[in-house]
Design goal:
The chain has 203 residues and is mainly α. The protein has nine helices and two strands, in the order H-H-H-H-H-H-H-E-H-H-E. It has one domain. A two-stranded antiparallel ribbon has the order 1-2. The longest helix has 24 residues. The radius of gyration is 17 Å and the shape is globular.
């Protein structure tokens, strides 16, 4: 139990490092995030305001801060089922949304959600479903703006995990992460513009 608590703490602290801010400072663009519609210290704004390398570095480290604690927990003999995995999976997302290093004012948690699921390697079915849904709702059935597309992606992924027979612990943890991310977005600065749905073959 003590080891599990340690990994939960490590996962939360890992999530609490906002790499969009770290690399935003390095590239001298962090203050420009305030110009964005959502004012979010996340990967999308790192690309938009910091350019390719700022965005790529932010993305890599945002994925890693979720994946590494989960992967190390499982490789160290941590339970692959039950409340221990549930908490270790969710902790990086909680840390990102409520980071102790930034006065509990964080980002949305989308990239780190992908990272936490990647940490389940070689069990990749959950992250592949999440990625496929995101691509589907961005390309085939394009939902805009980003606010609605993200919420729809989390909801659809939760639904698709049932017929895909995803491990119940992983599914429940994803449901918890989805609730955190969706609540963060609902309470965030991003404007809730009119919902638009376009099909691939429609212009």
């Amino acid at each position: 139990m003590g080891k599990t608590i340690l990994y939960i703490l490590i996962a939360y602290l890992s999530g609490s490092v906002l790499y969009a801010n770290v690399f935003g400072d390095l590239f001298g663009v962090r203050e420009r995030y305030a110009e964005s519609a959502d004012k979010n210290p996340g990967t999308a704004n790192a690309f938009t305001y910091g350019g390719f390398w700022c965005g790529v570095l932010t993305l890599i480290f945002e994925l890693a801060k979720g994946a590494v604690p989960v992967y190390l927990f499982l490789r160290s003999g941590g339970s692959a089922h039950g409340p221990e995995l549930f908490l270790v999976l969710a902790a990086p997302v909680v840390g990102h949304v409520l980071p102790i290093f930034y006065g509990f004012h964080g980002g949305k948690g989308i990239a780190v959600t992908f990272g936490s699921l990647l940490g389940l390697f070689p069990y990749l079915r959950p992250v592949l479903i999440f990625a496929a849904v995101f691509v589907f709702l961005s390309v085939v059935v394009k939902i805009s703006p980003h606010f609605y597309r993200t919420i729809a992606s989390y909801v659809m992924t939760c639904a698709m995990m049932l017929p895909a027979r995803i491990d119940p612990t992983v599914h429940l943890s994803f449901l918890f992460m989805a609730a955190i991310v969706c609540l963060r977005m609902y309470l965030g600065h991003e404007e809730k513009e009119r919902l638009e749905v376009k099909l691939l073959w429609m212009r």
